[in-house]
Amino acid sequence: MAQISLETRISDVDIKAFEMFCDERGMNISDVLGLFIRSTIKHNTFPFSVEDELINEKSDDMFYSESNMNELKRRIKAVENGESKLIQHDLIEVD
Questions:
Q1: Which residues contact 16 (CB under 8 A, 6 or more apart)?
Q2: Same domain, 24 and 36
Q3: Residue 3 within any structural domain of the chain
Q4: Are 65 and 52 in contact (CB under 8 A)?
Q5: CA atoms within 13 A on the CB side of 92
Q6: Residues 21 and 42 reside in one and the same domain
Q7: How many CA atoms lie within 13 A of 74 on its CB side?
Q8: Residue 75 pLDDT exceeds 70
Q9: Do 39 and 59 lie in a common domain?
Q10: 64 shares its domain with 37
């Protein structure tokens, strides 16, 4: 199967954070974008809520978005149920 190159504009801050995210999972950006594209095609929808993402981009304070609050509640419940544990670490600085 022939392959093509894809070019896009992404901020330096976002690309560094995304590279770190991918690296922590043993993948690279190309791997993740390939998974995203195949999943989108297979399920004929995005693998996340586009509405939540658009709201977050426009929000002055994304921390209090509905999707983030739901995720925080899910994680708190997991800790309370013993399914997860909190681990203290130093702050990670992102340039």
A1: 94, 95
A2: yes
A3: no
A4: yes
A5: 7
A6: yes
A7: 6
A8: yes
A9: no
A10: no
Helix (H, G, I), strand (E, B) or coil at 56: helix
Nearest to 35 by CA among 22, 52, 54: 22
56 and 42 in a common domain: no
Name the DSSP letter for residue 81.
T
35-39 mean pLDDT:
93
> Which structural domain range is residue 66 located in?
49-85
Q: Residue 91: inside a domain, yes or no?
A: no
With bands split at pLDDT 50, 70 and 90, how would you rate the model's confidence at 61? Answer: low
23 found inside a domain: yes
Mean local confidence (pLDDT), 40-59: 73
Q: How many domains does the chain have?
A: 2
Within 1-95, residue ranges assigned H as helices are 12-24, 29-43, 50-58, 66-80
The distance in angstroms from the start CA to the end CA of the chain is: 38
Judge contact between 29 and 22, C-beta under 8 A.
Answer: yes
What is the pTM (predicted TM-score) of this model?
A: 0.50
